[in-house]
Amino acid sequence: MTGEFPSWFLEQFPKLWLLLLQNNSFTMFQLPRLLLNHTLQILDVSTNSFDQRLPDNIGNVLPNLQHLNLSHNGFQGKLPSSFGEMRMIDFLDISHNNLSGTLPKEFLIGCSSLVILKLSYNRFRGQIFPKRTSFEKLYVLVANNNLFTDIEDGLRHSKYLSVLDMSNNNLQGVIPSWLGEFRFLHLSVSNNLLEGIPPSNLFNITNLKILDLSRNKFSGNLPSHFNGENMSLLYLHDNEFTGTIPSTLIKDVLVLDLRNNKLSGTIPCFVKNPIILSLLLRGNALTGHIPTDLCGLRSIRILDIANNRLNGSIPSCLNNISFGRSLGYEFSYDLGSFSFGDESLGVHSRLLILPREFSRSQPDDLAFIVEFSSKSRYDSYTGGGSFDYMFGLDLSSNELSGDIPIELGDLQRIRALNLSHNFLSGLIPKSFSNLTDIESLDLSFNVLHGPIPQDLTKLDYVVVFNVSYNNLSGSIPSQGKFLTLDETNFLGNPLLCGSAINTSCDDNKSTNGGFLELDSQNGDEETTVDMEIFYWSLAATYGVTWMTFIVFLCFDSPWRRAWFRLVDAFISFFKCV
Fold first, then answer.
1. Which of these, 249, 245, 213, lies nearest to 228 by C-alpha position?
2. Which superkingdom, per the lineage (predicted)?
3. 218 pLDDT exceeds 70?
4. Cα(272)–Cα(299) distance, rounded to whole angstroms?
5. CA geometry: angle at 199 spanning 196 and 203, to 5°?
6. Which of 42-51, 68-77, 535-544 has the lowest mean pLDDT?
């Protein structure tokens, strides 16, 4: 349907209590000026094409609304103060619009029955919430992607608050310590300007499932005492945390993201967490060997410990990690049945129009996001979606050495493997031809030698194959996906040849290859000649040295007399002994 909002419905049906007009193409939203106190309780006009200001009289015309959804439109300007007349409203979604300004005090004081409030993706600014706010029954507050600058004491009145998302705002200063007094299920303040040391009680909220403090300026050590028994998702990446990683931080989490901090020390023991799905430690200053405890993470899908200072060899037991061989995981949380005293705040029969993620029925899979580098780019993988498809291992930009374990070829379901920018030597394992699902394989910037195994042409899904800047030799495979690879993937290997780098292998034999063939034919002879020259040179050097020494002794000089005195002193010493 198109055109204006059908306000005549309200005039002709004064007892109408439910009006659902979502997913249409209405362009004008106006309400009757003379109509007051309509009985409408549920109004959903989400996902239309409204692009003007909200009617100033909306709260006067519809004071009995309990459920209002204006989301996914283009409403502009400030929120009308008449919203404060909606004293019975318990669900309000005005997200994904172009609303701006501060929240009117009439709204903050008058809408005291709110349980679920969604303000995200607008341009609201100022405080969230000032002292006089009366949202005592608020259970869910989603206010991400706005311009809010402060978390004020008014939020303390919402003692039942369980979901708080203030990510992607302009929040400054420190996190108030009283936030740790809530019984949160989900707390996100990511991508703000917050700083200082987060209150330790945030890490000890009993029922907390999701804690996201990422992309701020938090500093200090991570808390040594961590009691988040029910924690599932912990995002602390892109901050300035220092010190070591406490082993208590990793118990029972599904996703642990500590990327891009200043953490040091060794990787702690993760063997007691058999359910972790994603472990991201990239971009810190971790040292030591890769612990074999990681081989016990049988459920993990993404393991990223790149860009640290890890050394030693790659544990061959990493082939024990499932990387897709063990499928299936479950993550969800139940908002439960919330009631206060004798008054139930549930939405009863209106559950059918509540957003799925905030209905009181437990969702099958609550979406979460994991970021991982694959195919030479960073992507975000969503739980219940693309995350179910991705299996990856990134050990790049460390100080790892030794051969690449042939056992890594057992990771048949892995889609991204990055071992670049290390000191790995030896041959490219032929077992890599078993990585049948691989899409991105990066071995660049190592000291690998020998040929590229021809069996790798069996990799039907590979899009990125980079072996640049090694010491590889021989012909580049010219079948399968190798026909689509350009020369940048093979740079820095002067002994390679093939159509991918526009170098004929016949020409290579006549230059570099010819020398190699000559060396092979005459190797024993050249070795014999070299050793003979070495022995004769050594004998001549010793002979000349002794002759020079004897000649000096034949002349009467201070140096000669000093030498004989030294010899006499040694003889006297041994006689005394």
1. 249
2. Eukaryota
3. yes
4. 12
5. 125
6. 535-544
Could you report the per-residue pLDDT of 157-186, keeping only the tens digit for each? 898 999 999 999 999 999 999 998 998 889
- Please work out, in degrees rounded to the nearest 5, the angle formed at the alpha carbon of residue 192 by the alpha carbons of 245 and 51: 145
From 145, 83, 88, 89, select the one nearest 108 (Cα to Cα): 83
- Residue 37 pLDDT exceeds 90: no
Phi, psi dihedrals of residue 200, rounded to the nearest 5°: -65, -25
Q: Which tokens belong to 30?
A: 């106006």
Give the residue among 384, 335, 338, 383 at the shortest CA–CA distance from 361. Answer: 335
Residue 448: CB partners within 8 Å, gap ≥ 6? 404, 424, 425, 426, 427, 428, 467, 470, 471, 472
Residue 59 banded pLDDT, cuts 50, 70, 90: very high
Kindly state the tokens that stand for 91.
């669900």
Q: Which residue has the tokens 């172009």?
A: 98
Q: Which of 440, 457, 448 is nearest to 372 (CA)?
A: 440
pLDDT at 369: 84
Residue 154: C-alpha distances to residues 131, 200, 338, 457 (Å): 4, 22, 21, 63
- Which pLDDT band, with edges at 50, 70 and 90, does 247 fall under? confident
Nearest to 143 by CA among 162, 158, 121: 121
Enter the pTM of the model.
0.82
Residues in the chain: 577
Report the sign of the C-alpha dihedral through residues 273, 279, 281, 286, in that order. Answer: positive
pLDDT grade for 14, boundaries at 50, 70 and 90:
confident
Helix/strand/coil for 339:
strand
Structure tokens at 288: 């030591």
Q: Is the peptide bond before 129 cis (omega within 30 degrees of 0)?
A: yes
Q: Alpha-carbon distance 211 to 232, whole Å?
A: 9
**Helix or strand (DSSP H, E) at 310:** strand 309-312
Can you spell out the DSSP letters for 226-282? ---TT--EEE--SSEEEE---GGGGTT-SEEE--SSEEEE-----TT-TT--EEE--
Looking at the predicted structure, is the pLDDT value of residue 556 above 60?
no
> How far is residue 121's CA from residue 95's CA, in Å, rounded to a whole number?
6
- Give the DSSP H/E element, type plus range, for residue 220: strand 217-221
Q: Which long-range contacts (CB under 8 A, 24 or more apart) does 268-271 make?
A: 268/244, 269/293, 270/294, 270/296, 270/297, 271/296, 271/297
Coil vs helix vs strand at 292: helix
Q: How much is the mean pLDDT over the chain?
A: 84
Q: Taking the alpha carbons of 160, 166, 171, 176 in that order, is the dihedral positive or negative?
A: positive
Share of the chain above pLDDT 70, in %: 79
> Which residue would you say has higher pLDDT here, 264 or 518?
264
Q: How confident is the model at residue 510 (pLDDT cuts 50, 70, 90)?
A: low
Residue type present at position 214: S
- List the structure tokens of 408: 């890594």
* 3 state DSSP class of 59: helix
**Alpha-carbon span 67 to 61, nearest angstrom:** 15
Residue range 301-329: mean pLDDT, rounded? 86
